[in-house]
Specification:
Chain lengths: ~550, ~230
């Protein structure tokens, strides 16, 4: 954590030294604000559906809310609602919501795409799953479900047992359209995926090539849309939701994701977490981050070098060590299900000394191993030729697309929720946020490798703390009611720093023991949107390198 | 073996093996054949043994299970020890497809296409609960309830996700079955058009139903009654 004094006496409209002055924001919005709501995380202003752009533009340009982190759509008994969750890259604790209600008969509101580029995909998702339409949207099609899908599955009157016609013949020949096109065309159409080794899962890239150069690339996602939001809405807060976050970003980042849900639910229901449990959470979350970044490096090397080389195998070897530690702690190799609301599932494994020793052994060996990786990857000339100055993403574009995590930090955007909106035990520990100014594929890989070092620093301090912790104060769980029923109409948006960036949860309670709306803000979803900006005009191999450096995981993109 | 040591007495094996056989090629297996360099077997049996002993896997990742699948290929568990650990990126070069993850309506046609592109004989290992029944996502509106709705599956490896050891065991079992020439006839359940939602069975519904080729559908109409639930 940086100890430098913040040196920004220059304040935006509506900003005070303590945070956001919502009354000033309300007067800034003037007659655009037709109402005001109070969410747990921030105040929200109600805006007419035909004045969305103007209101958002004011908030962005005058009040400095340059980060549209999430767009949540939901249906009430009497209306539809889109909520734009805005915050600042400089200080994510300054948040504001913009609520846009539309009528049931005519659910059309103005698109925010002109103001925040990231709204493009978010609004397509809202249209796909909830059924709100957006005026002036450049390309309002289904994004997660097949185009032949009938109905909007998260709307209130959706009948899950209604027939759906999705045919095998639909994808019989994906090149048919291109073959039918004008033979004189100068460009060539190329499908990459959904089954392709470089797409890290089931992503489909529709690429238009001009010679060897990428003229256009369009990501087609939804091949792993597992209805995570619906399943969380059908689960009870206390126990039934927690197993699912493990499966969003499944690259061993389970505890980081669980924390996103735990943080949102704990803040919503006002649950305290014992300090001891917070230290365990912090340690295990950083273990997950190391395992996750290791795999990111391994698969990136797989993309660049094109085969299962030593780098991949070394990374697997080191991940095995980490997975063994996590298995000792949580009982599972991959789907940990370790966090509980108000604490963790159980204390450190006995004998504790053995666990500490094994963890320390790993940390002691880590610098040598990283040295090895640097020798094979970052200081390799071939690797540098492929990665330096390819896939350039400048900071302003990154912000406009809502990029977070190593992708944003590789473009010099100094944004890390762990430091800027602290949770857990992070603000008590000594560590740094890693940024690189290169904006290219190389920087993004470098950020991940250096973040591994920072995570190791955090784990080491946590191990020291846990070792010294008095035996009679090892409280892992606070008192939480058996059935959790937050007050009706409590709304919250909370995020944590996942392995890939800002992982946020929006929840609305309706007084029952299940959330009425559960929305996941996935960092990969926003990060993947930047791919066309990075790869247009570059060669195909650079497109593959850019995709690898984004380190997407499709379970989180599609949810 | 040089020709000028005719005076030294030879064993029967050496005499029968004759000249020109480099000792490098005399593996343990060769020694096991004993004095005779020939074996007599049925062609089918030989082919099955060969198929089971050298399997090329399709490099195919869907969801969470593919992470554990990578670990199975990786250094510690090393599936290649069993003659089944070379991932091929092209389905046209692969014998076995491990289905590692949840299959959703949009992906099912693509997976069937990949499966169709594999040359015969081909085998399928379903990895994880999602390929058995939809697993933890079974109640999702978009989730196919098991890989067998789309392609035939030879071996199911349960777990969420299965440990690498479990996958190794599943693959070893498959090899054993192939080597023994066992292949249970697995049939993919047809997509029966038993009902068209809760609409009345009038002329229009009949007309629509006639237009739909039941074999072509990815998802069953009668999910709630689906036998895989």
């Amino acid at each position: 954590m940086s100890l430098e004094e913040p040196s920004t006496p220059e304040l935006d409209t509506g900003e005070t030294l303590e945070g956001v002055d919502y009354d000033a924001l309300e007067s800034l919005l003037g007659e655009y604000a037709i109402g005001r709501e109070s969410h747990v995380n921030a105040e929200a202003f109600v805006v007419r559906p035909d004045e969305v752009q103007a209101a958002l533009e004011l908030l962005r340009d005058e009040a400095g809310f340059d980060h549209c982190s999430c767009v949540t759509a939901q249906e009430y008994e009497d209306r539809y609602e889109s909520i734009y969750h805005l915050r600042k890259y400089d200080d994510p604790t300054q948040e504001v919501g913009v609520v846009v209600p539309t009528t049931k008969d005519d659910p059309v509101s103005e698109s925010a795409n002109e103001v925040y580029r990231t709204a493009d995909w978010h609004e397509r998702e809202a249209y796909d799953l909830v059924g709100i339409e957006y005026d002036d949207h450049p390309d309002l099609r289904r994004i997660l479900l097949p185009e032949t899908w009938q109905g909007h599955p998260l709307s209130l009157d959706y009948d899950q047992e209604q027939p759906q016609v999705v045919e095998f013949a639909e994808h019989a020949n994906p090149l048919r359209e291109d073959h039918a096109a004008d033979a004189q065309s100068d460009t060539m159409f190329l499908n990459i995926g959904p089954h392709h080794p470089a797409t890290h899962g089931v992503l489909h890239l529709k690429t238009t090539l001009d010679g060897e150069t990428v003229a256009d690339v369009e990501s087609d996602i939804g091949y792993l849309h597992r209805c995570e939001e619906q399943i969380c809405q059908n689960g009870t807060y206390r126990h039934q939701i927690m197993p699912y976050p493990d499966r969003w970003d499944y690259i061993s980042a389970g505890i980081l994701n669980e924390w996103a849900y735990a943080r949102a639910a704990e803040d919503m229901a006002d649950i305290d977490v014992p300090e001891y449990a917070q230290v365990i959470r912090t340690m295990s979350a950083e273990m997950c981050r190391i395992a996750s970044h290791m795999l990111a490096v391994a698969t990136f090397a797989l993309d660049i070098y094109g085969d299962f080389t030593a780098i991949f195998m070394y990374a697997m070897r080191d991940r095995e060590v980490m997975q063994n530690l996590l298995e000792d702690l949580t009982g599972q190799r991959l789907m940990f299900n370790y966090l509980r609301l108000g604490g963790v599932a159980w204390d450190l494994p006995e004998p504790r000394e053995e666990f500490f020793e094994q963890t320390r052994d790993f940390l002691d060996e880590l610098p040598g191993k990283l040295e090895e990786f640097h020798d094979m990857i970052t200081s390799n000339e071939i690797f540098q030729l492929r990665c330096v100055n390819t896939g350039v993403l400048d900071p302003e574009t990154a912000k406009s697309y809502g990029a977070t995590g190593p992708v944003a930090r590789g473009s010099g955007v100094d944004y890390d929720i762990r430091r800027d909106d602290p949770y857990g035990y992070y603000d008590e520990l000594d560590w740094d946020v890693v940024t690189e100014d290169g904006c290219d594929n190389y920087s993004r890989v470098l950020v991940r490798m250096r973040e591994v070092e920072e995570s190791a620093k955090i784990i080491e301090q946590c191990v020291d703390l846990l070792e010294e912790w008095p035996e009679d104060e090892r409280n892992i769980q606070s008192n939480v009611p058996r059935t959790l029923k937050p007050d009706a109409d409590t709304e919250i948006y909370r995020s944590v720093e996942g392995a890939k960036g800002e992982l946020g949860i929006y929840m609305r309670a309706d007084g029952t023991d299940k959330p009425a709306r559960f929305k996941i803000r996935s960092p990969c979803f926003s990060n993947l949107q930047t791919l066309p900006e990075m790869s247009q005009g570059e060669y195909i191999p650079d497109l593959i390198a850019s995709l690898g450096s984004l380190d997407i995981v499709l379970g989180e993109v599609d949810r | 073996m040089s020709s000028d040591n005719t005076n030294t007495p030879q064993t029967t094996q050496e005499a029968r093996m004759g000249e020109g056989v480099d000792s490098r090629f005399n593996s343990t297996l060769r020694e096991a054949f004993g004095s005779s360099p020939f074996i007599l077997t049925k062609f089918d049996k030989f082919m099955n043994w060969v198929r089971g002993s050298s399997m090329f896997m399709l490099q195919f990742g869907i969801a969470c299970c593919s992470i554990e699948m990578m670990h199975t290929y990786g250094v510690k568990h090393d599936l290649d020890r069993f003659g089944a650990g070379v991932p091929r990126a092209s389905p046209r070069q692969a014998d076995v497809i491990i289905v590692p993850g949840t299959i959703v309506s949009k992906f099912a046609p693509r997976m069937k296409r990949v499966y169709d592109q594999m040359p015969e004989p081909k085998f399928v290992v379903g990895m994880g609960s999602c390929t058995i029944s939809g697993g933890p996502f079974q109640e999702g509106y978009n989730v196919i309830k098991g890989a067998e709705e789309v392609i035939p599956v030879d071996i199911h490896v349960p777990g969420c996700p299965p440990r690498p050891e479990a996958l190794v065991y599943g693959v070893a079992k498959l090899q054993e079955r192939i080597a023994n020439g066992e292949s249970a006839p697995v049939t993919v359940s047809p997509y029966e058009l038993e009902q068209f939602g809760d609409l009345d069975d009038d002329e229009l519904v009949q007309h629509l139903a006639d237009q739909i080729d039941e074999d072509e559908l990815v998802m069953r109409y009668d999910w709630a009654e689906s036998p895989s639930q």
